Amino acid sequence: MSRKKSIAMLLAGGQGSRLGSLTRHIAKPAVPFGGKYRIIDFTLSNCVNSGIDTVGVLTQYKPLELNDYIGNGQPWGLDRNRGGVHILQPYTKINSKSWYEGTANAIFQNIKFIERYNPGYVVILSGDHIYKMDYSKLVNFHEEHEADCTIAVIDVSWEEATRFGILSTDAEGRITEFEEKPKKPKSTKASMGVYVFSWDVLKKYLTEDDKSEKSAHDFGKNVIPAMLKDNKRLYAWEFSGYWKDVGTTESLWEANMDMLNPACGLYSDDDDLRIYARNYEGPPTYVAEGAELSESIITKGCNVAGYVHSSVVSSDCVIEAGAQVISSVLLPGVTVKKGATVQYAIVGQGAVIEEGAMVGKKPSPDESLEITVIPEHKKITGTVV
User: Fold this and answer.
1) b/e for 72-88, b at 16 or more Cβ within 10 A?
2) Which residues of 314-353 are buried (b: 16+ CB within 10 A; e: fewer)?
3) Are 38 and 29 in contact (CB under 8 A)?
4) pLDDT in tens, 77-112
5) 91: exposed, middle or buried (Cβ count in 10 Å: 0-12, 13-18, 19+)
6) Cα(11)–Cα(288) distance, rounded to whole angstroms?
7) Bridge pairing between strands 32-33 and 37-38
8) What is the pTM (predicted TM-score) of this model?
9) Using an 8 Å Cβ cutoff, are 224 and 275 in contact?
10) H-run or E-run covering 144
């Protein structure tokens, strides 16, 4: 069997507990985003745009909707006879059965899948980030530096640094220190959770890590520190484009609001970086006489008669006359009835905001941002903030 230069392993099994009710019934990568997408669309599209045609998607938490959405990979050009997209879930083995017990363990449990393609390099990705990236540039950098591991990094603020894996480098970009979510970070170079490993090296370290009963079987906590300890060649590749970890309701809301800015970095005339999604088959959107729309995204199948400002409205939403939607995200199938107001909120799929109800509130200048989240299929009366 011919050898693949690179394949991708996409970690998509996280519960996303910080997204609350939005991930009660679906995995985080399947959460709708930006009106027409799911979060996972960005990583899958990046793979195809980078020339990576073999992608293993590792699912675990409530995978049904995510599995159904990915299907045979056709929307992303991943419906191939050799390679393509593969859903990889935990499975029972002789004398043992277990869930994925960490990011490294998830890859370890799928060594047989990787070996089918005998790749030179394995690109490890997360399915819950919003960004555009050409991974081929990262792989080429890895090759040129004869690296064992290359980590894509982005500069963050000192306040944000405690949330990420933080690394230090020498003048040539070689990593000298790495610490996962440090209380006192030494730099602002944050891991994006995008790694390239030389496969022969990664396989060795995954196998050794699996034997350790003390390990959390995590790349950031165990595998990368072990490689550094052994003086392996680890390099940082700096990324300067748009990137957002949408692990909280506030960051998910912010990323949706960023979509309203054509200069945010997610829009591009470059077809090589297009984001693909499974097409929604529905009628065109209807905007009634008297409706007021400004600085908003309105997706297919909507019926809008009310006031919409600075908001992202997904498919099949109804906004009745006299209703107001301000600085909010409506997921598919939401109804906002007349006289209702929704502001600074994310409203779950199929929810109904009843007549005269009030959802969310505008934060005052001295208040931190708090986004109101309405669970899917919930009927709201009265006031919810």
Assistant:
1) ebebbbbeeeebbbbeb
2) bbbbbbbebbbbbbbbbbbbbbbbebbbbbbbbbbbbbbb
3) yes
4) 999 888 999 999 887 665 665 778 889 999 999 999
5) exposed
6) 43
7) antiparallel
8) 0.94
9) no
10) helix 135-144
